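Practice problem 4.
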């Protein structure tokens, strides 16, 4: 538990079947964006990390990035934020600015970035299922 107290903000970047696919989005520099995020993380001296994953699910909103709050951000109410259509330099600039200010729970996201927030897969279905379970009690 003690190690989690200092956990930094984490960017989980989808690079599965659709995200990061130059055939689906030929005008985007997917590799350049990932390199830019990793370089910024290295320069941030541990304040945030970047990880990639195979597929996060909402392929119709590719590219997808999930921003997980730091331990401090979570203590202050921050929750994971899912962002879709995350491909251009403006997105990357806004994301890095927000993360540099602390990310979820610690700083408000730029308004343009907030317009790209998407619902996590399964959220609506899980919410309905919880409601049905409560109704049965």
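Answer key:
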């Amino acid at each position: 538990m003690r190690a989690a107290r200092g956990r930094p903000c984490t960017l989980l970047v989808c690079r599965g079947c659709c995200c990061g696919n130059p055939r689906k989005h030929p005008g985007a520099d997917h590799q350049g964006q990932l390199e830019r995020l990793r370089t910024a993380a290295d320069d941030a001296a541990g304040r945030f990390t970047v990880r990639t994953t195979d597929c996060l699910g909402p392929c119709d909103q590719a590219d997808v990035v999930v921003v997980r709050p730091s331990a401090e951000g979570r203590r202050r109410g921050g929750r994971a934020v899912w962002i879709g259509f995350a491909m251009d330099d403006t997105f990357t600039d806004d994301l890095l600015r927000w993360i540099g200010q602390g990310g979820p729970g610690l700083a408000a996201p730029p308004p343009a970035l907030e317009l790209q927030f998407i619902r996590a897969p399964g959220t609506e279905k899980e919410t309905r299922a919880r409601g049905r379970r409560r109704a049965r009690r």
